[in-house]
Each structure stands twice: as structure tokens, then as C-alpha cells.
Design brief:
Order of helices and strands: HEEEEEHEHHEEEEEEHEE
CATH superfamily: Electron Transport, Fmn-binding Protein, Chain A
CATH architecture: Roll
Distance between the termini: 36 Å
Strand order of the largest sheet: 3-2-6-9-10-5-4
Number of helices: 5
Helix content: 10-25%
Radius of gyration: 19 Å
Number of domains: 1
Strand content: 35-45%
CATH topology: Pnp Oxidase, Chain A
Length: 213
């Protein structure tokens, strides 16, 4: 094994994003206090609980230390929507990664379609097959050795789910699921590389050892 002390590296970023894979992508819709829309993908993201249902993503600071527009919006309005990216609109979604001004609405720039949300003000992305309307629950600033905030971890509680009929599996009453093959989610790998979920396999959980063994 090759040991690397983080303090000795010029940047931990290339190593972390190429080694910690695949990473789900939170495609986040938010609104500024003035009502300007923002769409941005974040691959430091995951589900953190189901009771209550909560999701988390981390917004790193811009060069120079300014807050990302997404976090500035959520901090002001306490609301956002997390959509999941699928292969059929990945090119349009990737267009929202650009270095745009806060006054630029990525819905307009990407050509993606707004859909009104049920319980929050930020719109959903029509092209996405799965949406989670969220209210801000917690935030946590990450500081470096110099005490400078470099990222903010954002936790949202899901107040409404939306699943497109084309990917929904509702045979389990009260426990809807998503059909992975039809869902075609994409993930992030290292660099500019995206990944696709091609196949999976089942492994049963081991039985508890019998008493006395």
C-alpha cells in the first residue's frame, strides 16, 4: 500500500473523487430570495436517514471563498429540491455545471423544464424521474487548518417524493420502489467522467449464528 499524508499533497481532490466511486449526484433546484432559479449537480451527496427521510449534499466554496449560489439560496429560503439524473438528460444537466452568475437561471440555460413543487417553492425538473422536495434541517461548515470555511454540508428533510410512472414499482403496498433498469441513473467518477448503473446482483444477509456456536 502507498501511504499519503493529506498534508503532503498539493490537493486531495483528484485522489478522493477518483477513489471514492461511484458517487450519486444530487441535482439541486433552489430559488434566491428574489426568486431567481438555480440548478446545480453535487456529487458529494447521499441519503442519511429514512425516519425522517433526510438527504445530504456538500457545497464547496468558490475560488476566493464565496458561497455557491445553491447554498446561498437555501440559506436564505430554507427550501430546495433534489432530483436524480438519468441518462436521457445527462447532457442538459451537465450544462448546469458552468461558471454562471447568480442572476443566470440554469433552467433557461440548459433547456430543462420547470415543474411546480407541491410543498416548497423551488421547481422540480420535469426530465428527472425522481424528485425529493426538501426543507433545510441542518447545515455544518467545514473549516481547514487555517480556520477558513471551505465547504458546507447541507441536510434536508424530504417533505414530498415524486416518482415517474415509467420507473415506479408499486407492487409493495405502502412501499413504492424504483425499477433500476428503467431508471437509468448516472453517477460521478473521477475527473469529468460519469458512470452508469449497468447491472447488480443479490447477496443474502448471513443468518445469525446458533446459540453455543
Amino acid at each position: 500500500m502507498l501511504p499519503f499524508d493529506p498534508k503532503d499533497l498539493k490537493s486531495c481532490y483528484p485522489l478522493m473523487i477518483s477513489a471514492v466511486v461511484p458517487r450519486p449526484i444530487a441535482f439541486v433546484s433552489s430559488l434566491s430570495a428574489d426568486g431567481v432559479g438555480n440548478l446545480s449537480p453535487f456529487s458529494y451527496a447521499t441519503v442519511i436517514s429514512h425516519d425522517p427521510p433526510c438527504v445530504m449534499f456538500s457545497a464547496c466554496r468558490k475560488p476566493g471563498g464565496a458561497k455557491k449560489d445553491t447554498w446561498a439560496n437555501i440559506e436564505a429560503t430554507k427550501e430546495f429540491v433534489v432530483c436524480v439524473m438519468s441518462e436521457w438528460f445527462v447532457n442538459a444537466a451537465n450544462h448546469t455545471c458552468g461558471n454562471f452568475d447568480a442572476e443566470d437561471d440554469e433552467f433557461d440555460l440548459s433547456g430543462l423544464t420547470r415543474v411546480p413543487s407541491a410543498k416548497v417553492k423551488p421547481p422540480r425538473v420535469k426530465e428527472s424521474a425522481f424528485h425529493m422536495e426538501c426543507k433545510l434541517r441542518h447545515s455544518y461548515d467545514v473549516t481547514n487548518a487555517d480556520g477558513v470555511v471551505t465547504a458546507t454540508a447541507i441536510v434536508g428533510e424530504v417533505v414530498m417524493f415524486h416518482i415517474h410512472e415509467a420507473v415506479a414499482n408499486v407492487e409493495w403496498e405502502g412501499k413504492p420502489r424504483v425499477d433500476m433498469a428503467r431508471y437509468a441513473p448516472v453517477c460521478r467518477l473521477g475527473g469529468d467522467t460519469y458512470g452508469r448503473v449497468g447491472s447488480g446482483y443479490d447477496l443474502p444477509r448471513p443468518d445469525r449464528p446458533a446459540a453455543g456456536r
